[in-house]
Design brief:
Blueprint lengths: L1 H31 L4 E5 L9 H16 L2 E5 L7 H10 L4 E5 L4 H10 L4 E5 L8 E6 L1 H15 L4 E6 L4 H17 L4 E6 L6 H13 L4 E5 L2 H13 L2 E6 L10 E7 L1 H13 L7 E4 L6 E3 L8 H16 L9 H5 L4
Parallel strand pairs: 1-2, 1-3, 3-4, 4-5, 5-11, 6-7, 6-8, 8-9, 9-10
Antiparallel strand pairs: 10-12
Helix pairs in contact: 2-9, 3-4, 5-6, 5-10, 7-8
C-alpha cells in the first residue's frame, strides 16, 4: 500500500523535473549562445587588398560563422582614434578591435573607462584587465618565404619594402632577412621604408630603386603602398612575395607566393573565446600550427622543387623539428635598418 502511494508522488516529481529541464535547457543554451556586438576600427581602407581588407574579411566571418552583430569604421585618422573607440563603447558594443600596432595608446586610454567591454589590438603589444593584444609568430612564416627568395634570386640580391618604420614592421622585415641569409649567407638583403602604408606611388618608387640596384626578388610589408611594389615587379619582370593576403592574382607571372596571415582567423578565434567567457588580458602569439599563418598559392614562376622544399620546411617548423627563434626586438630597434 505504501509503495502504491509513493508511485504517484515519484511520478509527479519526475514530471516536474522533466518540465523544469525543458524550461531551463533553452535558458542555458541561450546563455551559452549569447551574441555579441563586435566593432572593428581600421587605420586604412578595406580596398587595400591586404592589411585592412584582411581584417574586414575577418569581421565578416565573425558575422557569418559566429552569428555576432558587427560594425566597422575604415580610414580612421590618428587624431580620431580615441573618439572612434569611445563611440563604439558608448553605443554598447561588447568587443572593440583596433587593427594595427598604432591603436595601442588609444586602446589603453579607452579600455580603462569601459571595464565591462573587451578590447583587442591586432599586431599590438598593449594589455590590461580587459585589453588583449594578438600578434603572429612572424619569424616562422617569414623564414620560409625568405628561404624561397634565397632559392630564387639569381643576382644574389633581395629587396624588402616596408611601410612605417614601427616595431612590428621592423620585426617582419628582419624575420624575412634572417630567413634569406640562413638559407644563403651570400645573398645581399636591402631594406627600405617608405613612411606610409597608403601610397602605392611611393611603394613603386622604392621598389624601382631597388630593382635599379640589381635586386631581382622583392617583398613588402607596406599594405596599400605594397601594391606599387608588386606593380613595379610586374613591369620590370622581377620576382616578388606577397603580403598579408593572397596576392598572386595581382601579378601572377611574378608573384612566387604570399606571406598569408589569417587575420580573419585570428580575430574569429579571439571573439569566439570572448563569447565563451575565456578572455584573458594578455599578449597572444599565433604560429604556423594555429592555421593563422600559411603560405599563399604558388605562382607559375615558382618551380616544383622550390615549392616542395618550402612546404617541407613549413611542416618541420610546425612540428618543432626546426626551431625559429624570435627576433631580438631590443637589439633590432637600436640598429639602423
Amino acid at each position: 500500500m505504501q509503495s502504491m502511494r509513493r508511485g504517484p508522488i515519484v511520478m509527479a516529481v519526475c514530471i516536474v523535473l522533466a518540465v523544469w529541464g525543458l524550461v531551463s535547457a533553452p535558458r542555458e543554451a541561450a546563455a551559452a549562445e549569447k551574441k555579441l556586438k563586435v566593432a572593428l576600427c581600421l587605420p586604412g581602407a578595406i580596398s587595400d587588398k591586404g592589411f585592412n581588407a584582411a581584417a574586414h574579411a575577418g569581421l565578416m566571418r565573425i558575422k557569418e560563422e559566429l552569428g555576432h552583430e558587427v560594425a566597422f569604421t575604415e580610414s580612421v585618422q590618428r587624431t580620431d582614434f580615441v573618439t572612434t573607440l569611445r563611440d563604439y563603447a558608448t553605443r554598447g558594443y561588447d568587443v572593440i578591435i583596433g587593427h594595427g600596432f598604432q591603436w595601442g595608446d588609444a586602446l589603453q586610454r579607452v579600455a580603462k573607462d569601459f571595464p565591462d567591454k573587451k578590447f583587442l589590438n591586432t599586431f599590438g603589444v598593449v594589455t590590461g584587465p580587459n585589453l588583449a593584444s594578438v600578434d603572429i609568430y612572424v619569424e616562422q612564416l617569414f623564414h620560409v618565404t625568405g628561404a624561397v627568395a634565397a632559392w630564387m634570386t639569381k643576382a644574389k640580391k633581395v629587396g624588402v619594402v616596408g611601410g612605417w618604420e614601427i616595431p612590428p614592421i621592423r620585426r617582419q622585415a628582419e624575420a624575412f632577412r634572417l630567413g634569406v641569409i640562413a638559407t644563403d649567407p651570400k645573398v645581399d638583403v636591402r631594406t627600405t621604408f617608405v613612411g606610409t602604408f597608403y601610397d602605392p606611388v611611393k611603394g613603386k618608387e622604392a621598389a624601382t630603386a631597388l630593382i635599379g640596384a640589381g635586386v631581382d626578388v622583392l617583398t613588402h610589408m607596406a599594405d596599400a603602398s605594397g601594391l606599387g611594389v608588386l606593380e613595379a615587379a610586374r613591369e620590370k619582370k622581377v620576382l616578388a612575395v606577397g603580403y598579408m593576403a593572397d596576392q598572386i592574382d595581382l601579378a601572377p607571372q611574378v608573384v612566387l607566393t604570399s606571406n598569408l596571415v589569417g587575420t580573419g582567423e585570428m580575430m574569429k578565434q579571439m571573439v569566439d573565446r570572448i563569447a565563451k567567457g575565456q578572455f584573458e588580458g594578455k599578449f597572444i602569439d599565433f604560429g604556423l600550427e594555429t592555421g593563422v599563418l600559411r603560405l599563399g598559392r604558388w605562382g607559375e614562376a615558382a618551380p616544383p622543387d622550390v615549392r616542395a622544399r618550402a612546404e617541407r620546411l613549413a611542416e618541420d617548423i610546425k612540428s618543432g623539428k626546426v626551431q625559429i627563434p624570435k627576433v631580438d626586438m631590443k637589439a633590432l630597434m637600436q640598429r639602423k635598418p
